[in-house]
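Q: Can I see a sequence and its folded structure?
A: Here is a first one.
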Amino acid sequence: MSVSTQAAFESGHTDQIHDCQYDYYGRRVATCSSDRTIKVFDVAGETQTLLANLTGHDGPVWMCAWAHPKFGTLLASCSFDHKVMIWKESEQGVFSAIYTSPATLHDASVNAIAWAPHEFGLSLACASSDGCVSVITHRADGTWDAQKIQGAHSIGCTSVSWAPAPPPGSLVAAGGASATPVKRLVTGGCDNLAKIWRFDPSAGWKEEHQLRAHGDWVRDVCWSVNMGLPMNTIASCGQDNKVFIWTQNEPGGEWNKTLLNDFGAPVWRLSWSVMGNVLAVSDANNMVTVWKESVDGRWNQMKTLLSDRKSTRLNSSHGSNLV
């Protein structure tokens, strides 16, 4: 197990950092904090330059997310203040809020956000402690519309992730290239469940599956890319110290679970590689480990990305303060 070296820099935040996200090209990094601000840095090698300090939230900012660059330079953020904000860069380093969610959208902390695959247009899914999930979509007329999944998780929703746009099996199926993408979400909640939702144009978002395995809060869920292959794969992690890998071998089939590992401490965050075959896991032991599936279906730990206690906690701790 190897430990990689990490270049550190002073962020300028005055309180705990909860998230750190690179943009599509890896040239910008956004950080958000309990100090209620979001900071955007330009990254060149080991040099970081502060470009913008975004203020507008009235509580700790849990997460930020860059949209696909085809839509311009857009950054979303969510906060304990019940709000979701979307920021647009109009010129170098100049960001302004182009959307702030109305007070009627969520009445508790918004804990997680995720942009849809760009093939679905400009849509942002949001998970809240009020138990609801909202999907905010930019319309052709320039307005924003929000749909809600009411009561998605009975005690509160902690996490959300989109399914990839290519329909499962489209790469190998006859005529698969013309298959219509289907919008799906996976959410995690304080009811110890992960749930899969499917969008029906005539009926809205409907629950499709419940994934039951965790014995405590599900802290994060992450849907892997499928590259057009028949298999769907989701990772989930929880307060019960465990990470499960869920696989659906054919469209519409059953979801099967594999215990990746019991980490002996709550697991906060998950992230798949761009090819979908490597999983990074961040846990309360202040470690980030990397796992890969072997040809016999076993998951093996490849290495530890971080061993510095402060750095790891900054990257993994947003879930510890959910209310």
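Q: Show me another, different protein.
A: A second, unrelated one:
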Amino acid sequence: VVLFIIAVMTGRVVPMFTNNGAPGAQARREPRLETLALGSVLVLLAADALGLQGLPIAVVALLAAAVHAARWWLWQPWKTLRHPLVWVLHAAYAWLPLHLALRAAAALGWIAAGPATHALTVGLIGTLTLGMITRTALGHTGRPLRAGRIETAAYLAVLGAAVARVFMPLLDAAWLLPSVGVSAALWSLAFVLYLVRYTPLLLWPRADGQPG
């Protein structure tokens, strides 16, 4: 259900923010692909509710991963690399098809279930949350929608947390506990940076003198 909400929300805002914040970008939405992307998540939800396992789940998850990867590609992520406030949203969304692909691999018994879960939580939810709360805080405090060094460092830290938690145990099972420590440290750093940077902004009056 959370995955479906994220898929709906990102489909509305990421292409718009891309076109508004990355000059030259022409992110677009293809109606049939949008229907397939959202529908694939609902099919996966239904399959889970029915208790399906193994190959059926793997097929649904893998097809959903392909559809969401195609959707993400239409948003032209490569044109956002000079704009951290935008590329962080693309980086976050990239964890969605990766989560689905890892879930397919787990359903087939090729890997443990943990990496897919952490791709969803640490990768997708964590990065998307940080990307959105920095953007909204800047906008609603009357400041330019432009990420500085602190924001960029926070984005890289949360992405590093996800990479460590997902991929270190996949490379070597003995790295499970170290991956937890590295991921926790980077995750904490990311949100401490947000706290330090944005607490004053959110407590002081708007920079443009407007109410709110």
